[in-house]
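Notes continue from the previous slide.

Worked example: a multi-chain complex. Inputs as given:
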Amino acid sequence: MTDTAREEILGRINEALGRRGGGEYVSSTSGSAPSGSPAASRADGSHSSSAAESAHPRQGAPAAGGGVVGQSADYLRTGTHSGEDLIELLVDRLVDYKANVHRVTGDPAETIVGLLEPGSAVVVPKGLDDTWLNGFTGKVSVDAPGSQLSVPELDSQAAVVTASAVSIAQTGTIVLDGSDDCGRRAITLVPDHHVCVVRVEDIVDIVPEGISRLEPSAPLTFISGPSATSDIELKRVEGVHGPRTLDVVIVDT
Amino acid sequence: MTFLGMPLLRSKHTDVNDLPGGQGNIVEDESFATVSHKHLSNQQLRNNIGHATSTIRDKRSGVVAELDDWEELREAGSRAKNQVMANLPEYLEEFEANFTAAGGIIHWARDADEANAIVTELVEANAPVLETGRREVIKVKSMATQEIGLNEHLETQGIDAFETDLAELIVQLGDDKPSHILVPAIHRNRDEIRQIFMDKMPDAGELTNDPAVLAEAARRHLREKFLTTKVAVSGANFGIADTGTLGVVESEGNGRMCLTLPETLITVMGIEKLLPSFSDLEVFLQLLPRSSTGERMNPYTSFWTGKTPGDGPQNVHLVILDNGRTRALADEHGRTALNCIRCSACMNVCPVYERTGGHAYGSTYPGPIGAILSPLLTGVETEENGSLPYASSLCGACYDVCPVKINIPEILVHLRNEDVEANHSPVSSQLDTALTGASWMMGDGKRMAAAEKGLPLAHAVSGGKSMNSLPGIAGAWTSSRDIPGLPEKSFRQLWAEDEDRDEDRDENGEDET
């Protein structure tokens, strides 16, 4: 039944687009064909090539076809902040959205352990640098393939400590990508307190730079501040279903 | 640019009536003019919505102003969506191949009934029957499932669907309907929400109207459901063709809960939600949060590609939905409405929406986008959907804020034309007669002058007061407008008198300077 539905819907779309006989390829663009050639360049072709772009094999194909005549689509691909300015921007944006930010040079263990309740239960992903919890007096559970914590077990953890993949300063966003030191998604979701380590070298300025560093097939979670809602009179209130406390430890090695 | 009064041609290459319209919660069953009257008199509603929309307008304009390349981003967003629509079959097939290769299972649904049946079957196969004799699913806010009436359908099939978004929860517990696509309970203020929670959450205890307290109550209410329910249903903000990736943009973490903890995940997504490439997210993850909640970035965004061993649901389904979208696509003057990314910026700036609220639009999609999308999905001849394109003053504020530059005013005018052709032909003979008469009279200065001689009498008869109920076809005009009182003299008469005075002055040799 659904096979029939598939053919019928695709047929309707062809009809809607005015294609006759199904084989005619209609494009409103001077850009790429979608199937088989996803690496076509942007239609305007005018923006300067950035490191981010050349590193990204799937550079997409928004192309001409609408909008105001003459309006450029050449948005920024790279930001202007670097060094201390870049870190300061990230800190400012994280704090604005009610994350707690801590900066460390060198070994972050003392800072991390200081954020955890002494003697409490903490979960970490299997790839986390185990020196980061040196001196912690509580119980550390390592979540790993084959020995995953159950949901009730995760619910009984006071906190989770992870690393992170990329952070975007302009929006105060931290991205977790399911890699060994970020862990699977559930461990950073169920415990009410997330201590997240951001390495200075993983900070980028703007969103396009962040996207270009990610592996699309990984399960990705973008986090910008702790859980929040704007559903009551459009006022932002922190603390709903996700972790209500987000501690970000920015580490400069 | 909106070309008022300039009739647009109907689609030429395809008769849109060949393609079936959508079903479900996208139908206005009373005309907008009639139903909006009821809502206009609800002062509480107007206060709540006025307060909320002015808050979000300020937030949005603040974060949009932070980006120097906002207009370039809008243009890029518009082009990406146009690219998708022009090549939709290829992108859908590419998406399907990639999602399937990653272990996901795709189902196609021609309309609401078919989509509801597919989801029901999947839930029956994967959710256990509980002691109550019923099955349960948790849901993350989804316009597509709202549109197809999924919750109502599941209920008849012995399945309870629990909305987990705070605003959706408020609506569901209040036995209410959503009135905004981002904040479905925007018509409720904190006092009303407190009362709903006190009435419907048995364990909530005594609550204050503090939003933080109310959010905490929602957390406690749903916690156990998140941790134990086996099947979740979601929508999707984006489907990425070149990777087969799906994405959900949210705030509270209820989305992450639904997308991560259950064993089975069923996503319902319209065919138009695709983006060509993963890298297009660099545009859309800037456009959407800033336009939507007025944040630089929303608290949580999740992406998944089929299933990931050891992480999240291992039984991953996607229902790809038409339900009238192909019909909208066939309208070459209206198809850009499908570019909508459901940010809700247009309703937040709309002077009509701000006064009537979202319920007046009769559809899952209220406000300016709803006024074009609902009739495009169903056809203007369905019920009273032909009345929706008139729910606008054509001020154009919606176009200015649209992150993908949908020219809503132009499509409104186009659909008014469609409505006249489909629903109001032949044009009323009364109107024809009146217009023919007016044309004859106004076409000649002498006839006009003769008619104006009647003004002093008409002024005396009407007492110079404004008129609010004219007879016959003119009554349609005065049903929502007052006509100013008739003057004693026409402009032409005043002008002529003034000319006479000037001549007197000239003759007396006076100099005005």
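Summary box: The radius of gyration of chain B is 27 Å. The CA atoms of residues 501 and 507 of chain B lie 10 Å apart.
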